[in-house]
Amino acid sequence: MPTTLRSAADLPDLSGSTVVVTGATSGIGRATAHALAAANARVVLAVRDTGKGDAVAAALPGETLVRRVDLGDLGSVRRFAAGWDEPIDVLVNNAGISVGKFGRTVDGFERQLGINHLGPFALTNLLLPQITGRVVSLSSQAERMGRLDFDDLGFERRPYKEGAVYAASKLANLLFVAELQRRLAAAGSSVTAVAAHPGLVATAMTGQTTGIARLVTRWFAQAPEDGALPVLLAATGEVPGASLTGPEHLLHMRGGAEVIKRSGQARDAALAARLWTVSEQLTGVSFPL
After folding, report:
1. For the chain, what is the domain count?
2. pLDDT tens-digit readout, 232-266
3. 178-189 pLDDT, tens per residue?
């Protein structure tokens, strides 16, 4: 298995493997699903809009399945997990959002925290008895600016700022991966948990930026196919558990994929354990092993 990845054409043959990719109808998720399918994996598109999912699946090579899951609705997450009883080699927690206005999920959580962290947290733990290989969660170097206030995780009392809330959710992703890996190792499981930072990518989400950020995106953003490379390395490469993959160049914002550094707070074991406990309380979902 590779320790770096510069092209999806370099993926190993994934025949016989099943990979679940959330948010696979556009952007990085769609590019990830396409590359995995081209490498002969059976790809499950876990998506909110099954009509879009069917259209994407029809354009992918190999065997694909489409299943509905809305990460902003824990009832939907539970239904997806209850309806799945086959082995999963890799779960890719790709789906995520960044929104400018405060909103709530079906369960009453702030939307970015709910969809970017709590939904994937619940989905992963519910599916974990079926996962045989790896859990990959998309994060971002924005985690370095993230802060978790456990008295106001949902930014209900603090001023709501899109970037601050997004960064906090991306920090939560890395802390989740770290604590999940610790628990897997303690349980004697061979499953590993890895995070991926795709870099600066031109997607529908980054296309909503304004001002200087919009210009930076226009000048420097890479295509979703390139942004998928760190995800693919995390899913198939020889990378340590709890590690973070990201682009090789331009301050880890463009080109290729390698293992990169996490911030000090993303490696804080006590912080990770506290977030896990709170996440269990909020979702009602616990570590199953």
Report:
1. 1
2. 999 999 999 999 999 976 565 767 799 999 999 99
3. 999 999 999 999
Question: Among residues 99, 237, 89, 233, which one has the least CA distance to residue 169?
Answer: 99
Strand, coil or helix: what is 138?
strand
Which range of residues forms the domain containing residue 205? 8-282
Q: Which listed residue (84, 109, 166, 276) is catalytic?
A: 166
CA distance linking residue 148 with residue 171, whole number of Å: 8
Dihedral sign for Cα atoms in the order 141, 208, 117, 192: negative
Q: What is the tens place of the pLDDT at every residue in 6-30?
A: 899 999 999 999 999 999 999 999 9
Report whether 133 contacts 89 (CB < 8 A): yes
Does the residue 288 lie in any domain?
no
Beta strands in the chain, from DSSP E residues, in sequence order: 18-22, 42-47, 64-68, 88-93, 131-138, 192-196, 244-246, 258-260
Quote the tokens at residue 178.
């770290």
pTM of the predicted structure, to 2 decimals: 0.93
Active site residue 160: no
Strand pairing category for 258-260 and 244-246: antiparallel
**φ/ψ (deg, to 5) at 135:** -115, 125
Answer yes or no: is 122 within a domain.
Answer: yes
